[in-house]
Specification:
homodimer; alpha/beta; Rossmann fold; four-stranded parallel β-sheet; nucleus (chains A, B); metal ion binding (chains A, B); metal-binding (chains A, B); hydrolase (chains A, B); inorganic diphosphate phosphatase activity (chains A, B)
Chain lengths: 268, 268
């Protein structure tokens, strides 16, 4: 057994981040990370439970899963926990009518939600929709509200696409927070409530679950705050300086998902 | 004499904010605020010193002054203290070579500065240049630097144009600060060094100067921290809620610049 992995004997379910763990995203659709599709098959074959826990907001879960399946990942829609459905539940519960500043391809997730006469703004990774005009529009709506409500689908700093690093939704969230002097409500990793939803869908308690991700704060820090173990992969947005993070220390590092699955399966 | 204005007897020089005090800016070039051009003439005629202290970064001082003169303001280039020339001094002193994310019309201010192989980013109110692609480019340059240096020309939250409120440079500064986990250096109001430059150009000590502006934080708070008196006008971006600001309290409120000048001249 690998030193430092004794805790893995208790693991009954895996939560996997997607971008940077299963594949590297990009304008071209993305490229699978070597060994990850086979690793997903080995998890299923082992009888361990599996749930994807993603802050992906550039597509509906349906089209996201189609893309993953086309890349060779044996995944179903029910195995994906993503921010937009969680945001829809929150909007319905609180009677909020959103103005959406999100990626065009995410809009169908909000089909059932009343968007007339908005009383909040929902911010996702809008990518090319992060225009000066769209940001000003979202700002004007917020500043015009008696009590501005900004719901942000994640708060990532940046992510890596095949053509380079891109600013993530968190940067634009900070811009609107500062301009309006407000605090956004984050739906998605690292929010505790979001990890709890993912665990409920995974069907195991936190002490029997491990999160595997490339983001030291959103994946590793968020999961650990819910009582889960968390492993950082050295793929995707991983940077060597993450290993000196002042606050977050993963339970283990691996070179990639395949290595994590190898080691976990050896412990069982 | 007006109650609460006794301090105005000591005033020998006025620092004026421009947008929201002399005129309301807009895509159409802007509209003078009623009485402000006459107020500037009265200041000159009184023998009081006058300097404009602006965070304007959408034009060179030369073209800015041309615009003001066309609107009827009797102002010279030497009477304008603006962030870009201050930033150029700082860049030269520290051997910094900027990547510029600024308004096209500001670029000539940096004509003498070496911009090859950038080792810092200078951020201004880039307006339509705040595109997703340009923000990603500035971010990638910063995150790629061993020690990222971000110089921001002001840190305003938003400003008012004739067609509505617009996000100001401070919002984009916060986005890049968050994405890179850095602190920007602010050149412009409310930085103390910037007000000190303006006072030096005005030629009076802080206790004999008054700042007149529409921004409770950048104009009023910044000037007061330099030992000056500060008056807020109820024009431009002024909002009634400013009068309950938790930290900043102006020495006086006026409806507009004309009223401020009326009262100050009455005290002399």
């Amino acid at each position: 057994a690998m030193a430092g992995w004794g805790w893995a004997r208790a693991v009954r379910g895996l939560l996997l981040d997607v971008s940077g763990v299963l594949y590297d995203s990009g304008a071209d659709g993305g490229v699978p990370i070597a060994g990850s599709a086979e690793a997903v098959r080995r998890i299923k074959a082992s009888g361990l439970k599996l749930q994807l826990c993603t802050n992906e907001t550039q597509a509906t879960r349906e089209s996201f899963v189609r893309k993953l399946r086309a890349m060779g990942f044996d995944i179903s829609v029910a195995q994906v926990t993503a921010p937009a459905p969680a945001a829809c539940r929150l909007l319905s519960q609180r009677g909020l009518r959103p103005h959406l500043l999100v990626h065009d391809d995410l809009i169908p997730e909000f089909a059932e939600i009343d968007k007339t006469n908005p009383n909040c703004v929902v911010l996702g990774d809008a990518a090319e929709n992060f225009t000066y005009a769209n940001l000003n529009e979202a700002f004007r709506l917020l500043i015009g509200m008696e009590k501005p409500v900004l719901i942000s689908l994640g708060k990532g700093r940046y992510y890596k696409e095949t053509d380079g690093l891109k600013l993530d939704v968190g940067a634009y969230m900070k811009a609107l927070e500062y301009a309006c002097d407000i605090q956004a409500e984050v739906v998605g990793k690292p929010a505790k409530r979001f990890f709890e939803s993912a665990l409920a869908e995974l069907g195991v308690p936190p002490e029997q679950a491990v999160m595997i991700g490339d983001d030291i704060v959103s994946d590793v820090g968020g999961a650990q705050q819910c009582g889960m173990r968390a492993v950082q992969v050295r793929t995707g947005k991983y940077r060597p300086s993450d290993e000196n993070h002042p606050e977050v220390k993963p339970d283990a590092y691996v070179n990639n998902l395949a290595e994590a699955v190898d080691i976990i399966l050896q412990q069982l």
